[in-house]
Amino acid sequence: MTDLDQLTQSLARNLKRWRNERAYTLDALATRAGVSRGMIIQIEQARTNPSVGTTVKLADALGVSITTLLDYEQEARVRLVPPEQAVRMWSTEAGSHTVLLVGTEARGPLELWDWRLMPGDGSDSDPHPPGTVEMLHVRDGELTLVVDDQEYAVPAGTSAIFESNVPHAYRNDGEGAVTMTLAVSIPPPR
């Protein structure tokens, strides 16, 4: 089984588990997430590997982290995640990519990401639930952070924090790679 097959199977199993735990019908989850009922059925039957955006919408609608949708296991007090178990969520031919390093459901989902954006690449994000906060630290290059249509230059060595319940994006408008670490804190479901 390939990594992609394993990811697809895990997502199928966990999406159905969390949908049932929340007592959401297919139609209810589709409405909450803004994702078609047919897409949810395909994901739960492991017949498709959805986009990162679709996965984020489903996680947000369920009030869980992407980590939880991709791999849910009861956690010990200390959980080590070796590099080969980190999940690459997307990549481009230019070499940009994101890697979900680790996440937890303690007091609401909390995720830690490793990002690499090559020159000219970027990633747009839909608004997250109210109360969601993102913190990032740029290690190399200069990130263009766009929050609610306002651009911010974030050079290497600089950190930023913002509420991400508005449209936001990460871009590399420079000539060298941008690397950064990003943490996302999502409030628990009400």
Mean of residue pLDDT values: 86
User: Beta-sheet strand percentage?
Assistant: 25-35%
The radius of gyration is 16 Å
Task: Kindly state the percentage of residues in helix.
Answer: 25-40%
Tell me the strand order in the biggest sheet. Answer: 1-2-3-10-5-8
SS-based structural class? alpha+beta
Q: How does the overall form come out from the CA principal axes?
A: globular
Straight-line N-to-C gap:
37 Å
Q: Please give the number of β-strands.
A: 10
Main β-sheet, in a few words?
A: 6 strands, antiparallel
Question: With helices defined by DSSP (H or I, 4 residues minimum), what is the helix count?
Answer: 5
* pLDDT < 50 runs, ≥5 residues: none
Strand-and-helix sequence, N→C? HHHHHEEEEEEEEEE
Tell me what you see in this structure:
- With 190 residues, this protein is of the alpha+beta class.
- It is 27% helix and 33% strand.
- The strands form two sheets. Strands 1-2-3-10-5-8 form a six-stranded antiparallel sheet. Strands 4-9-6-7 form a four-stranded antiparallel sheet, with no helix packed on it.
- Helix 2 packs across helix 4.
- The mean pLDDT is 86.
